[in-house]
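User: Fold both of these, please.

Assistant: Here is the first one.
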Amino acid sequence: MNLINTFKAGQRYIKLCPIDKQLAHSFPELKIINYIKTATKYLPPIIIGLLLWQYYMSAQIAVTVITILFTLSMPLQGIFWLGKRALSPLPLNLIDCYNQLKIKLIAKKIIAEHSTKDNKLTFEAFMTLINLAKLHLGDYFGQDDDSSPY
């Protein structure tokens, strides 16, 4: 049952993560999501090509089946990794960023002060907060309004 919950969390996390080039440098899951979407786009032609290869080149059926199963498992491995990542706790260096974003959203009265359902600080909760911040605070939500480069 834990395996199924991990896959469901991975699918939720794919839908939750914002596609943002600035965040892609800090979060490897955004690259993994891009790889999964690309793989699912090109997977059917690859599998058809493998089947045609087996038929016309008289390759061994076992080699073709193993290759197809490996090819099909690659997006599933990515979704499983994303599920593990979504449910894992935030590292200490991101907890401060989470708290700063939460304080900014509370100050703008976007979220309530005690709005978290549970006290687990996971990557899934952090991405939810980032989505709220991008929506209400703009693209540069991580920078202070008071500081200017000049």
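And the second sequence with its predicted structure:
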Amino acid sequence: MRKLLFTIFIAASFNYFLPALAIAEEHEDIDMERIQHRFEIEEQEMELEQRRREMEHDNQLRELELEKHRAQLKHFQHRPHKDKFMPLILICLVVHILVAVWVYQDIRVRGTGSGLWIVIALLAGLPGVLVYAVVRLGDAKKSD
């Protein structure tokens, strides 16, 4: 009788415990899937956070560069000495041109000399014309 009861108990246990074990294994698989899914989500969140930090860093660098360019632009826009020297530069340019025209006309009238003196007058300005005048005076003394 004991053997019979023991056999019934074992059979009943298998009938109740085996489905319970199968359910527990399914829950364990589901729990492992949830843990894996949660791990993947946390990895994605960490990647997003890293990208956000990189973008913030890039934005900060861009802001610094933009601020530097603004400062440079402001420096170039505010040049009071530029306005002071512009008329002087224009006067020097006009003088160079007028001196070259005078040398050209003098060479044509006298019929001597070369176009090289015009280039020297344009490049050197008044010192070049003074050298031309000294050479011309020397030529005038030779012809006398």
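The chain is about 95% helix and 0% strand.
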